[in-house]
Design a protein that fits this description.
The complex is a heterodimer of chains A (about 300) and B (about 300). Chain A is mainly alpha-helical. Chain A has helices at about 1-40, 45-50, 65-70, 75-105, 115-125, 130-140, 150, 160-170, 175-185, 190-200, 200-215, 220-225, 235-250, 255, 265-300. Chain A has 15 helices and no strands. With about 300 residues, chain B is an all-alpha fold. The chains are: A mainly alpha (about 300), B mainly alpha (about 300).
Chain lengths: ~300, ~300
């Protein structure tokens, strides 16, 4: 009797695992197929593309798109360089000011601890919206068509990350450590940079990752604040290339030509550009996934 | 003795100056980036022109709102924003919990890691890249669906970017594609937090896996579902600009099913140069958003005060 129960349980578990594997397998294929399609499309011969469209099993393969990109390199390299520059500067500055503002919020004996927490938190509840902030950045700070427009608005210091770091400080760094440093005569600034920041490296890794992703993937700031293509990062170059082909197809070529730095890219080139755009993410992803998952879980517990 | 007392009072609070200094860059940034625009909502009550600028443009009371709500746009964009969000909440929650339960069932294995990594990957893509992927499937000349699938089925081509009736399905599908894996992380963590002995006891009593899911896992997930749902409801007047602007390729033929408050605000400001209407729509969104997030939180606090945001 006992044995039969055990066997039944074992087969039940086995069946359930099989169902789980099949369902997750299907979802995984669905998650990856679009990515695979653009990779294959980028390696497809252009005439095959024109005849058969984008396909998972092209008649003829080709690396022409990538050869073309290297020959036409300057615009693409420039956009890539801008994306890297913006991502690096944005992430470094953001991590610095985020970890700094979070520190006093974690100090139990800081007089304005709660006031500061509310000041940060309120930004999650209410915002003035796009129009006032657009007017401020363009009319007051004259940020239009500068590299700063890609870095400063919106993403430099957000409440979500601040609370993530604050919680880490409060839970993982013992107050006694700070007290003993104070007894040794260390200033707050020394304590922060010499003790707190180094101890917070795991959470710094997490918010760096979140922030770097935001900057690398951002195209909205440039949509609002950049009209000169020389300041386009890779995402906005991609938007431009998409629009350019549409312009040409609808016979309104004259609008786009002249301002466009890239000559008409073929269907394959378009997809190879998209591949180049996701390449850094796919390459770094396996190494950083751990921090990403951890950050999402911790952030969800108490935003 | 009196000395000790004195120092005790002194150490009660740390010196505020140095700590405020450390917080200063962040405070200044939030003041500029977040707080000044809050006061800028007065633009919604002005007849703005770039020539006269922010200060000298004349006031026009509630005219912007009057004009806005006389148009069909106001209804369409509000309806779309709310309905899409409701669909995302319902379908997204079901999908995320399903993924989390299955991932949990497979335990700590390479298989699990592979599935989870793959399902998370779409979340890291920008909307521009995703728009490219959608385009690779849907565009009428060279898209995969028209050229391969519809051809194989012997059906006529469909001009996807002109046919608004398909877009609710497409957008919901794309949103799920991007976010389901990400959302499942939180549920997976919640499931992992359930005491294992409960499952063992149920299993000894002869409960099947399915019974365990419906009798143990799902009831235990209820608080998480409630919290995440209420947080999503708090954002019900906000939409992901990238999804609704970039993925439909800004196609005008699709506006009635793809326009949300966020795309309307963008178009009013940047394409139609109708700053007043755009500001009015933005304020409408901010105010409704504020009211609903505060009410949602009050609800959370009633249900489970530990999980209230404030």
């Amino acid at each position: 009797m006992e044995n039969i129960m055990k066997m039944k349980r074992a087969s039940d578990t086995k069946n359930f695992k099989a169902v789980a594997t099949i369902v997750l397998g299907i979802l995984t294929v669905m998650a990856l197929l679009p990515i695979i399609l653009i990779v294959i499309a980028s390696f497809t011969d252009e005439t095959t593309l024109l005849r058969n469209g984008y396909s998972f099993f092209p008649e003829k393969w080709s690396t022409d798109a990538y050869v073309y990109m290297i020959q036409q390199g300057s615009t693409i390299f420039r956009a890539y360089g801008i994306s890297i520059l913006v991502t690096v500067i944005g992430t470094v500055v953001s991590v610095l000011i985020t970890t700094m503002i979070a520190y006093p919020m974690s100090r139990r004996n800081f007089k304005y601890k709660n006031a500061l927490a509310f000041f940060v938190f309120f930004t999650m509840l209410f915002n003035g919206g796009v129009v006032p902030s657009y007017m401020m950045w363009t009319q007051v700070f004259n940020i239009k068509n500068t590299i700063w427009a890609l870095i400063i608005p919106n993403y430099l210091c957000g409440a979500f990350n601040i609370f993530l770091v604050r919680n880490y400080y409060s839970n993982s760094i013992p107050e006694a450590l700070i007290e003993s440093a104070q007894i040794d005569g260390a200033s707050e600034l020394t304590i922060f940079f010499k003790i707190i920041f180094p101890l917070a490296i795991p959470t710094v890794a997490t918010i760096s990752l979140f922030t770097a992703l935001i900057y690398w993937n951002d195209w909205v700031n440039a949509l609002y604040y950049i009209q000169k293509p020389q300041y386009y990062g890779i995402q906005n170059l991609l938007i431009r290339i998409m629009n350019n082909i549409q312009y040409l197809k609808s016979g309104a070529a004259s609008i786009a030509v002249g301002t466009g730095a890239v000559s008409l890219p073929s269907n394959a080139v378009r997809m190879s550009m998209a591949v180049i755009g996701i390449l850094p993410i796919v390459v770094i992803y396996p190494f950083v996934q751990k921090y990403f998952v951890k950050g999402v879980v911790v952030g969800a517990v108490k935003g | 003795m009196s000395d000790m007392k004195k120092s005790k009072v002194k150490t009660k609070y740390a010196k505020s100056g140095p700590l405020l200094l450390i917080a200063a860059p962040g405070i200044i940034y939030l003041l500029i980036n977040n707080y000044i625009p809050m006061f800028g909502i007065f633009l919604a009550f002005k007849k703005f022109s770039y020539k006269k600028g922010v200060w000298k443009s004349p006031w026009n009371g509630f005219d912007n709102f009057k004009f806005l709500f006389q148009t069909k746009d106001a209804f369409i964009m509000t309806r779309n924003t709310i309905l899409y969000n409701l669909a995302f909440i319902v379908i997204g929650t079901i999908l995320a919990i399903t993924i989390a339960i299955f991932l949990n069932a497979l335990g700590d294995s390479i298989r699990t890691k592979f599935f989870q990594s793959a399902l998370l990957l779409p979340n890291l893509m920008s909307w521009v890249i995703i728009a490219y992927m959608v385009y690779a499937f849907l565009n009428s000349d060279s898209g995969f669906i028209n050229n391969t699938i519809l051809k194989a089925l012997g059906k006529e081509d469909i001009a996807w970017y002109m046919e608004k009736k398909y877009w609710p399905f497409i957008l919901i599908f794309v949103q799920m594609w991007k976010n389901a894996g990400y959302q499942s992380i939180i549920y997976l963590a919640a499931i992992a937090g359930i005491d294992k002995s409960v499952f063992e006891a149920a299993s000894l009593d002869g409960a099947s896996k399915l019974q365990q899911i419906f009798r143990i896992t799902l009831p235990m997930l209820k608080p998480t579902v409630i919290i995440l749902t209420l947080m999503a409801v708090g954002r019900i007047f906000f939409s992901d600009f990238g999804l609704f602007y970039q993925v439909p390729m800004n196609s005008g033929a699709l506006y009635s099913t793809t326009q949300t408050i966020d795309t309307y605000v963008y178009r009013g400001l940047m394409e139609l140069n109708d700053v007043g209407m755009s500001a009015a729509a933005g304020l409408f969104q901010s105010l409704l958003g504020f009211i609903i997030v505060v009410s949602a939180n009050a609800l959370v606090r009633k249900i489970d005060s530990d999980n209230a945001l404030f």
